[in-house]
Specification:
The complex is a heterodimer of chains A (207) and B (234). By secondary structure, chain A is an alpha/beta fold. Helix content of chain A is 17%, strand content 25%. Chain A has a 9-stranded mixed sheet with strand order 4-3-2-1-5-8-10-11-12, sandwiched between helices. Chain A has a 3-stranded mixed sheet with strand order 7-6-9, with no helix packed on it. In chain A, helix 3 runs parallel beside helix 4. The radius of gyration of chain A is 17 Å and the shape is globular. Chain B is of the alpha/beta class and 234 residues long. Chain B is globular and about 50 Å long. Classes of the chains: A alpha/beta (207), B alpha/beta (234). At the A-B interface, helix 3 and helix 4 of A face helix 5 and helix 6 of B.
Chain lengths: 207, 234
Amino acid sequence: MAWDRNQMAARAAEELEDGMYVNLGIGIPTLVANYVGDKDITLQSENGMLGMGPFPFEGEEDPDLINAGKQTITELNRTAYFDSATSFGMIRGGKIAAAILGAMEVAENGDLANWMIPGKLVKGMGGAMDLVAGVGRVIVLMDHANKHGDSKVLRECTLPLTGKAVVDRIITNLGVLDVVEGGLRIVECADGVTEAELRAATQATIV
Amino acid sequence: MKKVYGSAAEALEGVLADGMLIAAGGFGLCGIPELLLQAIKENGAKNLTFASNNAGVDDFGIGILLHTKQVKKMISSYVGENAEFMRQYLSGELELEFNPQGTLAERMRAGGCGIPGFYTKTGVGTVIAEGKEVKEFNGEEYILEKGLFADLSIVKAWKADETGNLVFRKTARNFNPPAAMCGKVCIAEVEEIVPKGSLDPDGIHLPGIYVHRLIQGTHEKRIEQRTTRKREEA
């Protein structure tokens, strides 16, 4: 047993506190928005928007209103628009409290790799390097293992880095781990997962 | 000084030349200067370098200039939506310089503000830092990135007045203001040019000092990822 995608997103949503400005990455992190409940959370879209709303109703799509994944979205009664230099100014300047991002690999020292696989199609880092360098807290939300069953939580990353020592917390289908001095510390195990199972599934040092 | 031109082709006359570095606004297909890109294609200028966050898709945006082999190099943060781009890049026909998105935006802004370089945390310890000066401030490492000074800027806005003051709409603003600022000459295409005095001076997003030439036209405004929700979910 372990958490499914929605349970992972719900667990990640617990990280968010009232009043936070937050950036959600593409994939499972996008689902986090469904679980913030009554908390007053403002979502940033790094192309240049604070106060991102849900997808539009069919027929109400606006080509001038998209998120960082290029999907059509809507605005809210708190929305503000700005240019991309201002947008990354607030990211680099530490004004965004947290980013919840997917990853290919995370290392025990907080290194993050999520933008390229050498020899495969290179698409680019987009805003990921700016986000992990600048936001207050970087939370990785991903499956614990890759599709071959190998741990994505490693002693050292093998892929080109997005950021060095940038990750604060890792949330996977198996549990929650914090990056601390000397390795990772288990914060909690997913439903039905034992600490022994979580340790066995993790290549990184657990302290 | 007259800024308003009759067409994109006219606005490019005497400005566009082979080998130029062109800064283009837009994010994905949102807020791209689609009329000017089409006119650059028809003009046939070659060996162009584009600083633009993305490279369009195969048949829209900068993508149309890849098919005609007019682009020598792209300075971008993400090029994943374009198959022809990948083909030309992998075969060595096209140069590519990846810049993190915020670094690209700041390079444009800095260039427009007369700042030749700035230090940033973005990319420290990654391939982006290779060959760049590293400097420590308050115990943290930063890398030196250079301001971008373009020969020509092409941008898209929602409205302009005859003096070039621009107003953008929603997230179509994106890279357009910084791209406009960093060019020696900036051409803006807009959906509507209104008479002087009809825009609220407090609501101008980019002052006309940055805009040298202006055209009005009809925009396709293609949607890249149409995502919707069902009414009953509301």
